[in-house]
Design brief:
The complex is a heterodimer of chains A (330) and B (298).
Chain A (H helix, E strand, L loop, with lengths): L11 H10 L5 H24 L8 H19 L4 H23 L4 H21 L9 E2 L13 H28 L1 H11 L1 H6 L4 H27 L1 E2 L6 H14 L4 H21 L4 H15 L21 H10 L1
Helix pairs in contact in A: 1-6, 2-6, 2-9, 2-10, 2-11, 3-4, 3-5, 3-9, 4-9, 6-7, 6-9, 7-9, 10-11, 11-12
Chain B lengths: L2 H30 L6 H21 L4 H26 L9 H23 L15 E4 L2 E4 H23 L1 H11 L1 H6 L4 H23 L9 H16 L4 H21 L4 H15 L14
Helix pairs in contact in B: 1-5, 1-8, 1-9, 1-10, 2-3, 2-4, 2-8, 2-9, 3-8, 5-6, 9-10, 9-11, 10-11
The chains are: A mainly alpha (330), B mainly alpha (298).
Chain lengths: 330, 298
């Protein structure tokens, strides 16, 4: 990697630049970028967790836990400060992650994915049937404030939210880079390669997975708080499997290699979605599906492969059917 | 009123069509090792095609039997054709990639099909009630049932038995089982694994669509049909063990009974009861009820 020699903290410069750049951006891009940054936060968590070889299909659980947690606290005690809300969301998601993580760390591969999916759907089912929380309609919350200042101007409020989400996601990205290079981050990779050998070396691979899981849950919870502030509304759809599926999609689109790619992938997905929504309101899902297929086909290593080239190639097991196909052709 | 019997019958009726759908999912996973997210879309597609077939037949003034037969035939033809096209034209390009990537490819197919069904059939509810009167009403131990609902139980049992027989007692079935067990060995023994892949995928899609067709007379077809069904059949397949026919049957019965029981006893728990069962099974037997544990490489 070209910039591996630089300390990740350097990346704070482009983050500050992106935040100030928001001043000149048109209003519609602000809310779009806010959603993209907030989704990137969840996808970043998935990438962190994927380094242990496990993909969670139920990040909607923590996304919704963060959102609902913040919404309920805001409703009960009138907490409207945006920064506090993000911290609360991260705490709600993270706490749930700490509880769920050790239980789930025993599983791997497809079972890991299915179990996380099942848990998020249990939560969805509970939310839909809880009339106090508005059932399937959800409920509305007020506009957030920042350090005691309320923003009556919609444009100003959008910018504050944009700045906060970009800054949070940027800082999370920097932290993730530091984490990846740390001893713990490298052990996580070792767990993916062979968890039994890691155990023989005296490290609990379950604990490694559980910690990564809790980090991912915390990020998803914070993202839930952003989604809540951006929509000022919450409903059980936060925990539905299609929501979780989209987060995984961003992660795969990004390609597990580069942290920057996660933000780019999230932004690209959001752009494709809103443009196809605008110009093809009846077929935007179709456009999205075709776009995703095209990216998976043309950029096998994800968007990140466009600029960061991995020196160490991962040896992928070749499917026998593929070999047979080649033989049949020759 | 006989309460336990109501629950059991309702549960079995639910289980019958769910089993047919889940059977397709488990077969596709067994052979291709793909968890097909688009499976629910093919269920919806089958239901829509059935509705069209039934409407055409009814417009010609033909009896319900003709509608029923036309519905099954048209669905079988269209679904297997689409399945073959999809496997050969699209999925083939992604073999050898990561499990998650393949899953996301089917997720993209799910998104595409979602809009395609909306484009073809619109967003308003569609009905195909004609075959529903086929078997009249039945009184069973003091309970009144629509005959069609009860008929679903033997129909899906027959489908399940036929699949089991086909897999375990025919040469083609043995070949498929060999591919499920060890595709590398199958290739070296001269099995055309590509063909098995294509056929298995098409057959799995056919089963999903058939499940949709069988339920079509009972329900109203509208957008959003697929995403609930896929999540139910995931649960069934995971409970029973991915890739196992017997597992799909037991999983379907468990899920059907759980749904029926919660509808009658505790309606607010209906949605998450199934996932609670699924989570419980995963906690105690992660490989599902009907799958042997395999040794892992160190």
């Amino acid at each position: 990697m070209r910039y591996a020699s630089l300390h990740p903290i350097i990346a704070i410069v482009p983050v500050i630049a992106a935040v100030t750049f928001g001043r000149v951006l048109p209003a519609w891009t602000l809310s779009l970028a806010t959603v993209a940054a907030s989704n990137a936060l969840v996808a970043l968590g998935i990438v962190i967790l994927a380094r242990t070889g496990n993909v969670s299909f139920g990040q909607g659980l923590f996304f919704a836990a963060g959102g609902y947690g913040v919404a309920l606290i805001a409703r009960a005690w009138g907490v409207t400060d945006a920064v506090v809300q993000v911290l609360l969301g991260a705490a709600c998601g993270g706490l749930l992650g700490v509880v769920v993580g050790p239980l789930i760390a025993r599983y791997s591969g497809i079972f890991f994915g299915m179990l996380t999916l099942a848990l998020s759907m249990v939560f969805y089912g509970v939310l839909v049937k809880t009339t106090v929380l508005g059932g399937s309609d959800g409920f509305n919350v007020g506009r957030p404030s920042l350090f005691g200042i309320t923003f009556a101007d919609a444009r100003e409020a959008d910018f504050v939210l944009y700045a906060l989400s970009v800054a949070t996601t940027g800082l999370a990205g920097i932290a993730a880079r530091i984490l990846f290079q740390s001893e713990f981050g490298l052990v996580s990779l070792a767990v993916r390669e062979n968890n039994l050998r890691v155990e023989y070396l005296g490290i609990s691979s379950r604990r490694v997975i559980a910690i990564n899981f809790a980090v991912a849950a915390m990020l998803a919870g914070a993202s839930g708080a952003f989604a809540l502030m951006a929509q000022r509304h919450i409903d059980p759809q936060f925990a539905y499997w299609t929501t979780s599926g989209e987060f995984v999609f961003v992660a795969v689109l990004a390609g597990y290699q580069s942290v920057v790619a996660v933000f780019v992938a999230s932004l690209v997905l959001e752009l494709v979605r809103s443009f196809s929504n605008l110009y093809m309101p009846n077929t935007w899902q179709l456009v999205l599906g075709v776009f995703l297929l095209a990216v998976i086909l043309l950029l096998p290593e994800g968007i990140g492969s466009l600029w960061s080239r991995k020196s160490r190639k991962k040896v992928a097991p070749v499917r026998v059917s593929e070999m047979a196909e080649k033989e049949a052709r020759s | 009123m006989n309460f336990p019997l109501t629950i059991i019958l309702d549960g079995l009726i639910q289980a019958s069509w769910l089993f047919v759908v889940a059977l397709g999912l488990t077969l596709v996973f067994g052979v291709l090792k793909i968890l097909n997210v688009a499976h629910g879309s093919f269920y919806a597609l089958g239901a829509y095609i059935a509705a069209t077939a039934v409407t055409i037949v009814a417009a010609h003034g033909l009896p319900p039997v003709a509608g029923f037969v036309a519905m099954l035939l048209s669905v079988a033809l269209v679904a297997s054709a689409i399945g073959l096209l999809l496997e050969r034209g699209l999925l083939k390009m992604f073999y050898g990639r990561d499990e998650v990537v393949l899953l996301l490819v089917t997720y993209a197919v799910f998104l595409i099909l979602e809009d395609v069904t909306k484009l073809v059939w619109g967003v308003n509810p569609i009905y195909a009630t004609q075959p529903y009167e086929l078997f009249g009403n039945v009184e069973f131990a003091g309970l009144y049932y629509v005959g069609y609902d009860l008929a679903l139980i033997p129909i899906s049992a027959a489908i399940g038995f036929a699949v089991w027989l086909g897999l375990n007692r025919t040469v083609i079935g043995k070949i498929v089982l060999a591919v499920i067990h060890n595709e590398e060995m199958s290739v070296s023994m001269g099995v055309r694994v590509n063909w098995v892949y294509a056929a298995a995928f098409a057959f799995g899609i056919l089963l999903a669509a058939l499940g949709g067709a069988l339920t079509a007379p009972k329900i109203s077809m509208q957008p959003g049909l697929s995403s609930d069904v896929i999540i139910l059949s995931f649960a069934i397949v995971v409970i029973g063990g991915l890739g196992s026919v017997e597992g799909a049957a037991v999983g379907a019965i468990l899920v059907g009974l759980a749904r029926a029981a919660s509808v009658h006893l505790m309606p607010q728990a209906e949605l998450f009861m199934i996932y609670v069962i699924m989570a419980a099974v995963l906690v105690f037997r992660p490989e599902g009820l009907f799958k042997r544990e395999t040794a892992r490489r160190i």
